[in-house]
Amino acid sequence: MSDKPTQSTLSKPIGAGGEKSDPAQVGRRLWPYVKPQFWVLIGAILTLAIVAATEAGIPALLKPLIDHGFGAKGSPVARWLVPVAVIGLSVVRGLAQYASGYLLQYVSNRILLELRLKMFERMIHASVGFFQRETASTIINAIVFEVNQILNVLLAVLVTSVRDSLTVVGLIGYLFIINWRLALIVAVLLPAIGWLVSKINRRLRRLNRDYQLLTNDLSYIVEETVGGYKVVKVHNGEQYEMNRFGELSKRLRGYQMRLTVSGGLAQPITQFLASIALAIVVTIAVVQAAHDQTTVGGFVSFVTAMLLVISPLKHLIDVNQPLQRGMTAAELIFGLIDEPAEPIGGGKPLERARGEIEFRSVSFEYGNGRPILESVSFSAAPGEMIALAGPSGSGKTTLVNLLPRFFDPTGGQILVDGVALPDYDIHALRSQIAMVSQDVTLFNDTVANNVAYGETADLERVEKALRAANLWDTVAALPEGVETLVGDNGMKLSGGQRQRLAIARAIYKDAPILILDEATSALDSESERYVQAALETLMKGRTTLVIAHRLSTIERADRILVMEAGRIVERGSHQQLLEQRGLYAHLHQIQFQQNAA
After folding, report:
1. CB proximity list for 183: less than 8 A, separation 6 or greater
2. Helix (H, G, I), strand (E, B) or coil at 429
């Protein structure tokens, strides 16, 4: 029986399941982040409208220039005023483009900041089940990379929908003013293009969703290979990992090409429809000119405006692919933002616990119907050392994980100082508990900040904690003392030094309740001697729960609870359990024989 939940027993991964995102839904979700920047956004939209208005000004100036500016009888005003107006339009357009770009970047980056902060905050306060369900690469992709997709969508969609849509509307309006008969031909194009885009949309969204899942899988392979580089090298697993990475990379390339094929169809088809329309327009315009229904300037102005419509129309279609990519990113981002936070408790304060712990008929299961703990009952008096022994998978780790409320029991109650855990504020409860396990976690920070993690480092207290952990001499000999960076997860320190640094962190916290999860099992004899001495100092005056695989480390425990299949099957002192000749005595004999061998 495993103490760890399986994937199937936990909720679905980020962004999986539920309703799929669409632009309107994403817009509603983004509105609370956009609202504080509303007036800046309005300014950006107005400047984009100016850019769009200048687009229609070019063909509008061509008509009077051609009709009245050429020839001997041409108007002097048209000859000089039109070029000046063209330069003026260019200046206005340039200033408006610069202003719109700056304002849009300001808005989008503020939204990006708020989204990132919200996602990181939700991740920090997510339940333990979330971290057991999600891979680190998926979370990193969501917070660091995928949120940029929302930024790209904001810029691309807003610029295109405002500037290019207004440009299209303005130019088509001008076409109707110049020649409404010819303009009808252009208007027929728009529904055809809209129908085309709607057909492509569905396929692009599905392909983007699959592409995102494959990207997460690829990141996970890199994460696993980096984390397990020693195993990869000692087992000559380089080729195996290359094969894994290469196969998935090829699948990812295939999806990228399918996205390119699907997304690239719209533009050539649109250009083909536009060329048909242009051919018809030229034919009809020639007939109209023969009957004096249009002028040369009117025709040139019309064709220029029509050709100018094609570019923004292409932009409107081209934005479809990043838009669908952004919708997929939105599912991941808002999936994380919607992740339920762990319960904060009833709010009861707890300044300094006495350290009295009681488990009353506690049961626990992860949701797959298999009980991990069944009716576990025991109590620990303040300052008492309780050891948990038993075969692997018997529920020891799950049991101690219930005390800081990493999980809540599915049955029974756990009390600290006579009060049920859910009644306490969860942060107040956890401030009373320190943990040291065989899997030490250190941060790429200074020794002092690792010892005082979560608080501002008091260097005097840090030194006392390091001395108590038998680590001061080692730290004092480092180039920068307590200000030395320990490296990624303490890679600059040995195993025993990392363990003692974790013990110093627990000493610094000075919590009345201590959880030790076999803190010496992975150490050599000399390191274990130093660590064991540090643990003796740490445990003084604290209520301690010790998970032990080496039974020799818990012989001095006040009580030993022997667990099997989620139940306490034996309890007593070391000597009493040996005399009972039960499971504990059997495990002790096996270890004694192994050590003797």
Report:
1. 172, 175, 176
2. helix
| Structure tokens, 68 | 């009245």
Q: What is the mean pLDDT of residues 324-347?
A: 81
Q: Which CATH class is domain 438-510?
A: alpha beta
pLDDT higher than 70, residue 326: yes
Tell me: the pLDDT tens digits for 229-269? Answer: 666 776 677 887 888 888 888 888 887 887 777 767 666 77
Q: Do the Cβ atoms of 471 and 505 come closer than 8 Å? A: no
- The confidence score (pLDDT) of residue 299 equals 67
CATH topology of domain 18-337: ABC transporter transmembrane region fold (1.20.1560)
Write down the pTM of the prediction: 0.70
CA dist., res. 509 & res. 68, Å (int):
88
Write out pLDDT tens, residues 214-226.
887 888 788 778 7
**Domain spans of the chain, in order of start:** 18-337, 343-432+513-520+542-597, 438-510
Coil, helix or strand at residue 513? strand
Instruction: Please name which of 88, 87, 107, 93 lies closest in space to residue 47, comparing C-alpha atoms.
Output: 93
**310 in Cβ contact with 275 (< 8 Å):** no
Contact 370, 422 (CB under 8 A): no
| Architecture of domain 343-432+513-520+542-597 in this structure | 3-Layer(aba) Sandwich (3.40)
Long-range pairs of 100-106 with CB within 8 A, sequence gap ≥ 24: 100/44, 100/47, 100/48, 100/51, 100/159, 100/163, 103/40, 103/41, 103/43, 103/44, 103/47, 104/44, 104/154, 104/155, 104/158, 104/159, 105/155, 106/37, 106/40
Measured distance CA(210)–CA(252) in Å, rounded: 9
> Residue 411 pairs with which residues in a beta bridge?
363
Q: How far is CA 165 from the centre of its chain?
A: 33
